[in-house]
Every structure is written in C-alpha cells, then in structure tokens.
Amino acid sequence: MAISFELQEEIQALTENDDYPIPNDHDPNDEDIERLLEAAVEAVAESSDAITEPDVFDVYRSLLKHANAVSGPMMNKLLDSISSGLQAELDATMRDVERGDQQGYMSHKVPLEMFGFLLLWFVSAAEKVKQPEDEDGQSVQAPKGRRGRGGKAGGKATSSRSVNKKSEVWTWEDQIPGTLALISKVLRLQTQRIWTTTAEREAFITCMTRPAYHVTENEQYMKVEAIKVGVLKIICLAVKHHGHTLGAQVAIMQHLQFYEHLAEPMAECLSILANEFDYPQLGDELLREIAGKNFNGQDQKGPRVFARFLVRFTELAPRSILKQFSLLREQMDSESYPIRVALIEVIGHLIRELVTSGADEEQRQAQKQILKLYDELIVRLMDISSYVRSKVLQVLWKLCELKTKFPKQRLQITAAAVSALSDKVSTVRKGAASLLVQLLLTHPYGMSHGGLLEQSVFEAEYGALKQELAKVEDQMGKAVERNDEDDADHNEDEEDGEDESSKKKSRRSKGDDGMDIDEEGDEVAAGGEDTQGGDTEEDEPSSMAVDGENGEQSTPRKKKRSKLAPRKSQLDIAALSSEQEALAALETDKLLQLRLKKKYYGEALNFIRQIEGAMETMCDLLGSTHKAEVIEAIEFFRVSHEYHFESAKACIGIKKMVHLIWNKDNTTSTSEDGNELKGIRSRLLECYKNIYFDPIPDLTPKEQVNRIAKNMIELTYDATLAELTSLEEMMRIMMDENQVHQDIQSKLWQVYSTNKQLPKAQRRGAIAILGMLAIAKRSVLTDRVDIMLKIGLGPFGKADLTLARYTCVALQRLNGSAKKVKGSLLDKTLRLEMDNPIFRKLQAAIEMPCHSKDWFGLAEQAINAIYALGEHPDVLCNEIIKNLTRRVFSQDRKPKTKTTESQPSQPTEKDPDAMDEDHPGDVTRSSDDITAPPESTQGDSQGSDMGDAFELSQLLFVVGHVAIKQIVFLELVEREWKRQKDEKQTIEKQAAARKGGNQTSKDGGEELDQVAGNAEDEIGERIAAVRETELLYGEQSLLAIYGPMLVHICGSPHKFKNRTLRAAATLSFSKFLCVSSQFCDHHHRLLFKILETSRDANIRSNIVIALGDVAVSFSNIIDENSNELYKGLSDKDLVVKKNTLMVLTHLILNGMIKVKGQLGEMAKCLEDPEPRIADLAKLFFKELSTKENAIYNNLPDVISHLSTGAHAVDEETFQSTLKYIFTFIEKEKQAENIVEKLCQRFHLCEEPRQWRDIAYCLSLLPFKSERSVKKLIEGLQFYRDKLHEPKVFERFQEILVKARSNKSKDKPDSDLDEFEKASDKGCFYHEDEADHTFQILEEYRAQGEEDHALEKRVVKKKAAAARKRGAAPTRKTRSKKAAAADDNDDDQYED
Q1: Residues 6+ apart with CB under 8 A from 32
Q2: Could you please report the per-residue DSSP string of 165-189?
Q3: How far is CA 652 from CA 423, 620, 648, 649, in A?
Q4: Region of residue 1227 (phi > 0: left; psi between -120 and 50: alpha; otherwise: beta)
Q5: What's the count of helices (H) and strands (E) in the chain, helices before strands?
Q6: DSSP for 62-104?
Q7: Which residues of the chain carry a pLDDT beneath 70?
Q8: How far is Cα 478 from Cα 590, in angstroms, rounded to an integer?
Q9: Rounded distance, CA 1074 to CA 1317, Å?
Q10: Helices 949-995/1039-1051 angle, 10° precision
C-alpha cells in the first residue's frame, strides 16, 4: 500500500516539530536497526519505487530522526541508499519524459519528492553525527556505492567489508560534492511537466535547494572548491530554470545577515548567474534591496558582510553594479561607515571598467560617468570617518595606475591629497603621502624634459609659448584683414574648413571645440575637453614635428603671395584660392597645437606648484610618532628628488630626514595590507644610498667614485650642527657595515690634500666626512696624520680657520671612540706624548694672531684635541695661556693696539649684527657666534693705556674652556687611579688566595674589599678637593689669577663695553662657576644679574645654557634661585626662550631642580605662537606625565598661576592650555580628588573669571566613577551661589550630560538620581530624565540671580546715601580737603 505523502506538509512538520511523528518509529536503542536498514536498502536497490512503501520509508525516517544514536558507517550506508535510489528514480523519470509518457513520468512525482525529503533531512541530521567525530581530527574516506536502477546500491558492497565501529570515523565532508552533483542533475528535470501547480513545484525546488543552503552555513565546507562550485551551480540552476528567484533572494539576504563567510561566495554566485546563465535579474533585485536597506551605525557585523559582498560583486560583474549604482549611491549617506567604505571601493572598480569601454559612443557616455565618479571620490575625502577617507586615498592610488590620464581630475586629486596631509588621523596622512608619491610616479607630463618636473624649466617654456601664441594670433588677425581686402572671405572660410578637416582625420571631432574654448581665453578646459587634451598629448610630438616643417614652408609662401598680389591680371584664381586654403589650414593647425601645448604646460605647472606646496607639511610628517607615515614621507622626498623638484633639490626634506638616523628599529610593525614595514632607520639609509651613494649605470668606476665622494662632501654644505651630528652617525653606521669603499676614502683624501684652488666648502667637507668615518674605523686617519698637519694646520688652515677647526675635530678621532661602559674603569683611548708634532701645530693654531670670529671655534676644537690626545694636556695649555697673557698685557703691544683699533673702523658696525645671527637648527649657540672687530677694551677714547679687546677676548675664552676641560680630565685621572688600584688589589687577592687556606682567604678577601672601598673613596675625595680648592684658589694655580679678572669684567659693563669681550668673559665666567662650589656660591648672583640686564641675546642664551650646566654640578645653589631661570621663558628673543625651555625640561625631568609653583610658566609655552616652542612644551608635559603624580601634584598651582594675578592669561588661552594638561589625568582617584579641591576653591574665589575657569576645569574631568559625582554633589554648598553666572551654569550642565552619557560599568546613576531628588522640594517634575538632572541647577541659578540683583541694589543705595551725605559739605571741610591735597602734592615733589 502506497503511503500518502504531501511534501510541503512534511517539510513544515520537520521544521516546526522537535519530535517528528513517524507511524512505525524504530528506536536504534531498542531494536536491531542494522537489520531493518539492510532490508530497506535491499528493497530500494531492487526498485527505487519501494520508497513509497510505509515500512521502508519509516525505517529511513527513523534512522534520520535518531541520527545521534546511529554509527558513522550506518549513516554512510543510508546516504548511499538514498543517493542511489534518487539517481535511479531520476534516470527513469528522464527516460519517460523523453518518450513523452505523461502517465509514466507523473508516477515518479511522489518517489522523487520522498527521496528529496530524505536527502534534505539527511543533510541536517548528518551534522549531528559529524560534530563529535570531527574533534578527533581523523578522516576516513567513505566508500562510494554503485548507483543505478536495479543495482544494489550499498547493501552488499558495504556489508562485505568488516568494519570496527570504534576505530572507523565517518566523514560527511567527502560525500558533499557527490550529493550536490546529484541535486544538480535533479534540477535539470523539466519540473513544470511533473509538478503542474506552482505550489507543488516550489515545494520540490525548495526541498532540493535547501540542502545546498544548509551546506553554505558551514565555513569549513565553503573553503572546499568542489563544494562551493556545487552549491553555486544548484542555486543558479534553480533560479534560471525553476523560478527560484524570490526564494533565492530571500535566502541570500538572510545568509548575508547571519553568516560573514558567505559574502564572497554569494557574490560569485550572482556573477555566475549573470555571466554564464544570462540571468542578471536576481543580482539586480538584491542590489535594489540592499540600496533600500537601512544600516545601523552601531551594528558592526552586518554592514561589513554586505560591504564585502558589494566589493566582490563589483570585481566580478561591474556592469551589473553600474546599472544599479544610482540607487546604491544613496547608501553613501548611510550611518554605517563599512558600507560607505565599500561603495568607495565599488566606485574605483567602476571607473576601471568604464575606462575600458569600447565603442566611441559608449566611450563618450563613459567619460561623463567617470568624471562624476571622480567627483564623488574627491567629495568623500571630507567624510567624518577616517576609514572612509583612508579608503578614498587608497582607491585613488590604484586609479593612478590607469593608462588613461585625467589631467583636470589629477589636479583636483593632488590638491585634495595635499590637504589630507594635515588630517588628524595618521592612516589618512599616510594614505595622502602615498598617493602623492604615486601621482608623481605616474604623472602625465613626461613627454618633454625627460619626465623631470623642474619648475623653472616649465615656467620658461610656458612663458615662451605664451609669446609665440600671441605672435601667431596676431599674424592670423592680419591675414584675415588682407583676405577682407581681396573680397574672398566667405569662400576661403569654407575651403579652409574643408581642408582643415581633411588634414585632421586622425584627430577627434572635439578638437575644434577645444580650440574654440581656448580662443575665449580659458587655459583650463572643462571635464570632457580635459580628458581629450590628455589623450591628445600622446600625439603631440609627431604633431609638433609637422608644425615645424609647415611653419618653415609657410613664411616664404606668404612673401610670394604679397609680391604677386598687385599683378591681378596674371593671377590664376584657382591656384590662388588653393594656396590660401593651405595657408589657412596650416596656420589654424599651428594655432591649435600651440594652445594645446600651452594648456599642457599650464597644467604641469599647476601640478608642480601643488607638490611644492606639500613639502613643508611633509617635513612635519618626518617627525611623526607613527612609523608608516614617516616611511611614506621618506619615500616622497626620495621620489621628488629624483624628479628634480626645486625644494627637493634644495634638500629641505632630505636634510631634515637625516635626524631619523637616531630612531631605534627595535619594534616590528605591519602595514594595512599585512606586509611587514621596514624600520625607519633602515629605510632612511636605503633612501640616502639610493640618492647619493648607489652607482649609476653608464658611468666608469672612476666616475662613480668621483660622484659618490662629491655627494658626500655636498651633504656638509650649509649644514647645521644638529645635521652634522646626525650625518656623523649615518657615516659611522655605513662605515661599520663596510659600505664605504676604499677608493672613495682615497678620493676624499685627494680632495682634502690637493694643492689646487678649490672652493673652501669642498675641502672642509672632505675632512669633515673623513672625521665621521674615523669614528667607526680609526685607520681612516692614522696613516694620514702628516697630511692633516700639513693642510689643515698649515697654510690652508691659516687661510681658512673653519678648515682648521674641522681638522682638529678629525684629530680627536685618533684617540679611538670606544664607548664608555657605565661603572667600568677600562679606558681604551689612545694617548700621545706631549712632544708629538700634533701638539706643536695645535698650539701654533691657537696662538696664531687673528681677529676673525672663526678663531673661537678653532680654539675650542684645538683645546678639545689637546685634552683628547695628550698625556699631560694641562702642561701644554698652561704654556698657551701664558703666551696669550703676555701677548695681551706686554708693554710693547700698547702702541700697536692703538693702530689696530683705528684700522677696522668700518667693520665695527657690521660684526655685532653677526653676533645676533640665529641658529634655529641648533640647541645651543656655539662659540662661533662670538665675534667682534679688534678694538680697545673700554672704547676708542680712552687712550693708549688700553689693550686690544679681541686679544683679551681670546685669552679669556681659552682660560674658560681649559677650566671646563680640566674638570673632565680630572675625572679621567680619577678613573685611571681607581683602575690601577683595582688591578693592584686583584693581584693581592690572588696572591693571598694562593698562600692561605679557604677560611684565611675568605677573611683576607673581605678585608681587601674594605681596603679597596676606602681607597676609592680617598681617590674621589682627593680629586674633589683639587677641583674645589686648588684649580681656582690654589697658590700655584694659573687659573686662580683669572677668576677675579672675569668677575671684574663681567661686573663692570660700563667699563668694558666691547660686545665680543663681554660675550667671551661671560661664557668663561659661566664655565668657572662649574668648577668650584665655593666660587659658584660667591659669584652666581652676578650671572643672574647679567641674565636680567644684558641686552645681548647671545649672552642671555649662553647664560641660560650655562646655568643648566651649573645646576648639574651644584644643584642646591641653582635651586635656590630657580625663579630667575624661569624668566627666560618670557624673553623676547626666540632662541633664548627655546634654550630656557630645553634647559628647564632637562633639569626638571632629571630631578635636578624642584618645581615650586613655576610650572604655570612652562604651561604658557603650550600656546606659544612659535610652533617649535609649543612642541617642546608638549613634549615636556608628556614626559612629565610619566613621573609619578607629577602633573597631578602641581595642577592646582598651574590653574592659579594662569587664572589670577599679573601672570594670568586670557580665557581662551587658559582653556586650550588646561585642556591639554588634563589629558594626563587618567587615574580615577586623581580625578576624584581634583573634583573635591576645585569645588572647595569656589568658596575662596570672588571674581567671576575665576569661577568660569574652575567650572571649565571641572568640565574637563571624565566623571566615570560614582565617587567623582558624589564629590561634585557634596561640593554643591561651595558653588551654588555662583550658578547665576551663565558660563558656570553651562559648564555644570555639560558635566551632568557627560556623567549621564557615560557607558562605563561604574556609571553613577544612583548618585545622579540623588542629585535629582535634592531638587524635588518646590520643583516641577518633567518626564525627561535630563530635565530632572538640571532642576537643582536651575533652582540655585535663579536664587543666585536674585541674590546678585539684591547685592547690586544694596550697593546702589549705599552709593546714593554717600552722595547725599557729601552733597552739602561745610566750608571747613572743603578747606581741610584742599590743605590735604596740597600736602600730597608736596610729598610727590619730594619723592
């Protein structure tokens, strides 16, 4: 008896009921289910129609219902049986359909439905068996049964194998491709002939497609290509041939919402459906539905899936997206940024697709669409989401690779990218920098000048073109006039037009339009014409060649025509008209070419100027803390240097980036595309090698060496001290890595030692680079010392003191550059005997008579070299000081001094200006800045008893520098003594260990350690005593003579007016203060006095730096007078202010001086108009925040300092300053205490300005914890009478809104509710919660306003009463007041 089976009802019952009803249910736990299955499988194998028998069908259903209790092999047998039966039934049905036997194929309807139902159930039930088995990680290939009508599908084949249940693991994944292939075959049936009603047909199709959808839900399955292809094929067949469009649409939308991994597969499905099955309707419907969907900004998962789907679909089927883009474009305003990001990427793919349009008509239409899409991209650079802005820049980067250039759009893109460099988000800035690099690499202006973008060259060409164009236009105008005289205007115009069109067959039809626009005077054409102009540029060289030839021919023809014109009787009219046609065509063609060239050069200039304008911002990016954008900035400067941009040629960015050599490449990071980023330092070295040091093709080895050596030398030109220091480190690294060839070193020596006349900077650069290389390898210099003495300290050095100074620096490298290890007593430096020729030359260089400012730099480095190389440098310096002293104070010098004074009368006005030179790149002012002409110490009018001021300056400078170097030398002596002592103690320990036993050696060792410790203390104390009492106060000390002299000169500015002398004396005096605490204690106030009164910015700057050194040496002395040091922060001179800030930063952060309420002055610098000052101040507070509670402890003082008193700032500055400082208050406990302190401060403040400032500070706190809000509520008594001030009330409203909107787990709702309850009494309740919150504020504000008004009335009444009392004063009172006034006047005169 056949079973009654309704497919739709069965599917519904299976879906809705957990316990699916089966008439003959067989429980595997109670019955021999294997025997029952064997019988059912045999029956179906004999005839697939047996499935309609209730007993057989119920066995299958029972196994599927209790699948979790069925073994894997049995499930395998079950699938084989269902598949074989379905295959057999399908084959029979197809045979009947082919024969046209309606009764025959209709009889297969129910078996097909039953097999389909079982297959659907099996797919969902198989997961119950698979999941626990999958944990073992084992996979055994399941046997595939034979399929076919009458074939024994799985019974005997399977039973013939003996299977151990426990050891065999059944896998469903391997069976999926075959099952999906079977379903695909079923879907090739002509279902409309078997299932005549729509409902029945839809039920069957749903039954066959649902297994495919079920498989898609598993991400692991969809990673298998065979499974994915099978699923997509089923969906496409169902949609194309069986009306499954609506069902597929609903299913795909649901799957996109719930399964993230299906975004790309579903897009591929729609693409296959549109391209291979020619059915794009489903894709269109889905896109329309997505376009109308409302995506929530808070939802992250859903929009991301749809976004990936749209991007993948666009990649595969851009034309389908293009048709619906007008609807999808509405999603550009979606709240969800992932959707907007996806649409940006979609636009990029659409532009790529449109660029490849084929036919001319399509191309013209595509051009309009492309321009609109470009505009959409550029507008989206203003999106509020940084992810969107970043994606726009990435898409534009990719579009730059297109062969078709869009000149107008590229200019807009460049301007937008330059603007994006100032974005607040680092990823956007990095994207903008990367885009600018790509725009440079793909620029469309490479048809001339070798692709280089040198602004001056393009400007010259543009100017020449303008003149030539004006000339041709003028000639054309005259030609027209002559034609008017011959009465041939109309005919010639027509012929010209025909001739012109025949000569321009290769040109586009828009060429004439472009010319007309140019005639109107526009240099930049509209969108389509720009595109055409860009395309025309490709044909330009050949066109220009034709123009040149025609131009040469046209001139003589004109002359011939003008000569023949009067002889009208002999004219051939036809020949004349054809000649005129040719001339007009040539002239018109030339005019068009000139206008196109002018437009080309105009756009190129615009592009170059935009890139030049980005250079300064790019320099700022080099200082970024984000690795990716720094690397992009380095690449930008490398590329711009290759294209010969003038700013890059001036090495603005190239020089600045050299400071990145100090960056430590310890951390690894990845870019957005997952690639590992190179370290900044390694990328910098790579960039410099690429620009300066890598060989260039087509050069001989000798030329390569010359070029590299020349580049190295040029790096030192006009370099600041900071740049030279960074370059030195770079050269050291390169030398360490053996990247500087020996031939290059030889070439540098050749440049340095040649007797030819070279530019001074070239010889200086050579020895400077050699000195840098010697830091890594001393051997660079050791064999060439005689050359350095002969050149740098010989005649060349005397003529060029800077060369001599660089030579002295290089000589210092001879002692080795082994880094000192902290705590180590080893000293690997090399010391020379004092009779070495080097020291004689150095002494001669210092004692050389000279009145140049460069002498000071030379003397400084010469003394450094003496102390770096000499065994007894103090002996030689002793001799030098005596010789200089004799020169200054010897009697026979006085007459000469007078004559010397009279000679340099003109430069006297010039050199003080040289002293005022600012070196913004350096942290300190070097001694090079000290300069003045030779003149008397006290002015020219004092007579012949005065000495040479410049020579005295030289003496004092040497004395001061020797004093400071002697301290360093004493430290080296101390370390050497300790090392010798340590070696001696070690030897004694070893000897004692060999002689005595274990116990004896142990006791002896401890005793020796004690002795060694005491000995080290004695050595330290002895050296300290020498420094403290002997250097400046010893009877035999040479320096002791000059201490009083320095004090006298510095303390008598009215006597010693020479600026050079005062600068040198002050500098040396500062160094003396670092030597002895006794000298410092007695005379440090004089230094502060000079700092306060000196008008010379150089002197003030040097004093500030010196005070930092003094503070390191004797912190307690400077700490007592630190207030004076802070005054430098308000100095008018930028360098003084910057140096003060840096010195204070160093002293405070290293704990050398204590902050006593002066942090407010440092805070003022945060809003300094000079960016360098503001940046340094921000860096200071950032570093200070790392110290425990440093900012928190000083915050009340900062607020008071900036809010009240003479040093208060305006409210706007106060707010911006405190806003930055409050970002460092991160601990909840600190925030709570600040709330309490600020609330209490209200009670002590009387000025409304102070109330507003305190309220603003309160509004900056986060109020995340309950305690913070509680403190605010408890402080109500202190500020309730201040709420009538509008700004104060507004700030408290902001605080309450912030507290309410807080999303943290400790949200203080209970405290806010308590705050609301305080307003219950006498207040009206609103439904809105926020209104409840503000009730108490409103109440106290109203009360405060009443009190304030009352106070005003009282004051007015008192004033009125006072006026009434004083309205009728007696005569006696008036006379008394007059007398009192007279007395006051007398007192003023007396004062």
Answers
A1: none
A2: TTT--B-SGGGHHHHHHHHHHHTTS
A3: 22, 11, 6, 8
A4: beta
A5: 66, 0
A6: HHHHTGGGS-HHHHHHHHHHHHHHHHHHHHHHHHHHHHT-HHH
A7: 1-3, 17-18, 104-105, 127-171, 358-361, 477-584, 666-676, 817-828, 891-947, 996-1016, 1302-1357, 1366-1391
A8: 16
A9: 66
A10: 140
Distances (CA, A) of 547 to 40, 536, 591, 592, 593: 93, 15, 10, 10, 8
Question: Rounded to the nearest 5°, which phi and psi values hold at 936?
Answer: -70, 160
Contact 620, 538 (CB under 8 A): no
How many CB atoms are located within 10 Å of the residue 139 CB?
13
pLDDT of residue 78: 85
AA identity, residue 114: M
Confirm if 581 and 492 have CB atoms less than 8 A apart. yes
In the numeric block, the tokens 């550029």 are attached to 378
Please state, in angstroms and as integers, the Cα–Cα distance from residue 90 to each residue in 235, 562, 1204, following that order. Answer: 19, 96, 95
Beta bridge partners of 948: 936
The candidate with the shortest Cα–Cα distance to 561, out of 502, 504, 478, 503, is 478
From 1232, 1136, 1233, 1155, select the one nearest 1198 (Cα to Cα). Answer: 1155
Residues 6+ apart with CB under 8 A from 1334: 1293, 1296
**pLDDT score recorded for residue 1101:** 92
Burial of 45 (0-12, 13-18, 19+ CB in 10 A): buried
Phi/psi of residue 948, each to 5°?
-75, 120
Q: Per the structure block, which two tokens stand in for 1246? A: 């009387």
Structure tokens at 869: 């190389």
Residue with tokens 């605010």: 1272
pLDDT score, position 130? 42
pLDDT tens per residue, range 378-394: 999 999 999 999 999 99
Distance from the first to the final alpha carbon of the chain: 135
Q: Amino acid identity of 526?
A: A
The per-residue pLDDT for 631 is 93
Cβ atoms of residues 536 and 411 within 8 Å: no
Residue 1229: other Cβ atoms inside 10 A: 11
CA dihedral 864, 868, 872, 878 (to 10 degrees): 0
> What ranges in 135-262 are assigned the alpha helix state H?
155-159, 176-186, 191-194, 198-216, 219-222, 225-242, 245-258
CA distance 514 to 1242: 72
With CA atoms as reference, report the closest residue to 883 among 849, 932, 833.
849
Strand partners for 676: 670
Distance, in Å, from the CA atom of 161 to the CA atom of 472, rounded to the nearest integer, reads 98
Q: What 3-state class would DSSP assign to 108?
A: coil
Distances (CA, A) of 457 to 450, 691, 1297: 12, 22, 61
CA 1057, CA 1054: separation in Å to the nearest integer?
A: 6
The Cα 147–Cα 149 span in angstroms is 7
pLDDT at 1069: 92
pLDDT of 725 reads 93
CA atoms within 13 A on the CB side of 1232: 12
- Coil vs helix vs strand at 1109: helix
DSSP code, position 260: G
What pLDDT is stored for residue 1309 in this prediction? 61
In angstroms, rounded to a whole number, what is the distance separating the alpha carbons of residues 58 and 1?
Answer: 13
Q: How far is CA 207 from CA 211, 228, 897, in A?
A: 8, 19, 116
Kind plus residue range of the DSSP H or E element containing 146: none
Distance CA 1213, CA 1202 (A): 9
Cα–Cα dist 294/379, whole Å: 22
Phi, psi of 1233 (to 5 degrees): -65, -35
Angle between helices 198-216 and 7-16 (to 10 degrees): 40
Residue 281: per-residue pLDDT: 92
Contact in structure between 234 and 215 (CB atoms under 8 Å): no
